[in-house]
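Table S2 (text version). Query chain:
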Amino acid sequence: MRKLATAVVAAGLFFGGMGVAVADSTHELVMTTPGVAFIGTYQWQPTTKVPSGLHVKGQLRDEDKNDGHNVYLRTKVEGYQWGHLKGVQKKHIKVDKVFYDGAVLKTKEVWMHACIDRGSLRPDYCSPERLFSRN
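Corresponding structure-token output:
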């Protein structure tokens, strides 16, 4: 009877661990608008990893090198102001960043989009805003 109980517990832990691995798998991420593109992947970090948030990897690209404008990723973690991850004009930069809320163990929502900095007289031009929610 003990062997059967041990086998059931081991199977439950194994299949439960598989569910966590699937939930935290890597997904493709593409955000584009004329002049800027972000191509990469995203993955939710497990709550056991510090910091526990949205891990984004990829390239932020200036797609129109002759327009004279810089590019950036605009991000917002729940409860905080919008932040910027600046790119470099006429170049591609590698991005490897975790967006998280340091006040909680489990960040649940992150908003993000790729933008062109068109200066102070004209509004910036951005890709559609994406919401990433943790289940």
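Notes on Table S2: Helices lie at 2-23. The longest helix spans residues 2-23.
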